[in-house]
Design goal:
Helices cover about 70% and strands about 5% of the residues. It starts with 17 loop residues before the first helix and ends with a helix. With about 220 residues, it is mainly alpha-helical.
């Protein structure tokens, strides 16, 4: 399964560097737990698995080390970082600030096509949630993130938030049996409608609603 092969249909994307493609491919493997926390990271195996060259894979892995998704340990090499339950609420708290900023920027700066696409992605999430289709829900979730980030035109905020999104997505996959898809879909729809209508306050409220949902989900896991 890959979130990154399903590009939004109405938004044209520039040609991407091989290292960025590799980063996305590895991110999917980590966030969906195909590469388990604590498991070794072997460059040659990833290159073969993704069909990408060793050089872009190596560059992508170095980026992941720098943001903490992968750890470099003496005598053990590269390992997928573990999910830290104690740290996860801090991840959500930090992500909340960035998501509100991005939502405000998107509500103000998005093109008409981007506003329409963001709504389309949220609607796909709602339909997938109603049918209990987790993979389709998460693909649409990623598509919404991609367009939202493009629409915000705030590269600094996006660069900071993406690793946090991956951590939240990985947490979700690890504990998905505790999540409520329809509640998440409602929060995404509130965010999407705020952006689509250019209402910065509504977009920010939608971002807060989404983070509240993720925080409740995390606390249920931590309190068990």
């Amino acid at each position: 399964m890959s979130f990154h092969t399903d590009k939004p249909s109405t938004i044209s994307a520039p040609k991407r560097r091989a290292a960025d493609v590799a980063y996305d491919a590895i991110e999917v493997l980590i966030s969906t737990l195909e590469m388990q926390p604590g498991s070794p990271v072997v460059e040659a195996e990833i290159a073969e698995r993704t069909g990408l060259g060793r050089t872009p894979v190596r560059e992508a892995l170095l980026r992941m080390v720098s943001i903490g998704l992968i750890e470099q340990q003496p005598r053990r090499g590269l390992l997928v970082s573990n999910i830290d339950l104690a740290d996860h609420l801090d991840v959500i708290q930090t992500r909340r600030v960035l998501e509100c900023l991005i939502a405000t920027c998107s509500a103000r700066r998005a093109t008409a096509a981007q506003r329409q696409e963001i709504l389309r992605c949220a609607q796909k999430m709602r339909l997938a949630a109603e049918r209990g289709l987790l993979d389709e829900y998460m693909r649409a979730d990623h598509e919404l993130d991609v367009v939202n980030h493009q629409a915000s035109r705030n590269h600094s905020a996006v660069k900071c938030v993406v690793p946090l999104i991956v951590q939240c997505r990985r947490f979700w996959y690890a504990y998905q049996h505790e999540g409520e898809l329809t509640e998440g879909a409602r929060a995404h729809m509130a965010l999407a409608e705020g952006i689509a209508t250019g209402d910065e306050a509504a977009a920010t409220a939608g971002a807060h609603q989404l983070m509240d949902y993720l925080e409740r989900f995390a606390r249920r896991i931590i309190d068990q």
